[in-house]
Amino acid sequence: MCWFRLLFLPLVLGLSSIATGCTEDEPYVRSLAPVDEPPFAYELYCDERGQPVNEEAPVLLVRRPSHLEKVYADAEHGEARARELFRHIEGTFVASGLYIADEVTSPRCLALPLPGCKPDWSFVDRLLPSNGPGAQRLREVLGTAFAQRARQRGLRNALITSSVGALLAITVVKGQLKGAAAEASTEGRRMLASTEGRTLVTATSEAEVLEARLLEAEASSLESPSRTRCGATTWPTGSGATPKWPGRDLPPPPGDSCRSRPSPGRATTPCAPTSGAE
C-alpha cells in the first residue's frame, strides 16, 4: 500500500462501504492511535528536495500536529523543501475531495438518499488532529475540491454548503471547546450540567448556598433596628393559650406580630398596644 493510499482511504471511508468498496481497510482507520512526536527533523519525512522518504512519512506528518504546523510555517516563509513536502500533502487532500464528490454524486446516491451517501468528516478529524493553520489549510483544500467536483456533477448548492460547512467547522468547534475547558467558565459548567444532568453533588452544593443565604437574611432581619422585638419566642402548649384567628390557626398578621402570649416562667418585653379587638 503506497503512502498516497494510506492517506487517501481514511477520508473515503466516511462513505458507505458499498460505495467505496474499501471495507477491508476500515480496521486500519478505526485503529488509528495517537503517535509520538519526536524532535522535529525534515529527515523524518522527506529528502533534501522535499520528496517523501517512505510510504508512512506523510501519514505520520499529518498526525503529528506540531510537526505539521512547523512544515506549514516554513512553507509560508518560502522554505523550498517545506513547500514541496506540503504541496504533496495538499495534492493528496485535493484528490481525496474529488473522489468523495464522485462517490456522493454517483448514480447510486443520486437515485436514493442512502445513509452512506453523505460524507462522514469525522475520519478527517481522526486523521488530522491539529487545529492550527496548516491543518485548516488541508481541510480547506479538501472542501474546495469536493465542492467544485460536486457542483460540476450536479449536486445542489445547499447540500454542498452543508457538507463543506460541517468539514470546516471541525477546527472551529474543537478550538472553542478547548478554550472553554481552559477557562473553566461558570457558563460552561452550567451548560455541562444542563446537558449531562444534575448530579447529587451539584444539588447539594446549591442547597448549601441557599441555606447560607437564608441564614444571612434571618440574621439581617433580627438585627434590623426598625423591627420591634418581643420577649416571647415560643407559644406555650395548651388550647387556652394558643391564639386563634377565624377560620384556621395562623401566625399573627403583620400588624399583630407583637401580640404574643408569655411562656410559663419567662418574663416578656411589653409591646405597644395595637388597634382592634381580638
UniProtKB/TrEMBL annotation:
Residue segments, region Disordered: 218-278
The entry's keywords: Signal
Signal peptide residues on this chain, from the entry's feature table: 1-21
Protein name: Lipoprotein
Species the sequence originates in: Archangium violaceum Cb vi76
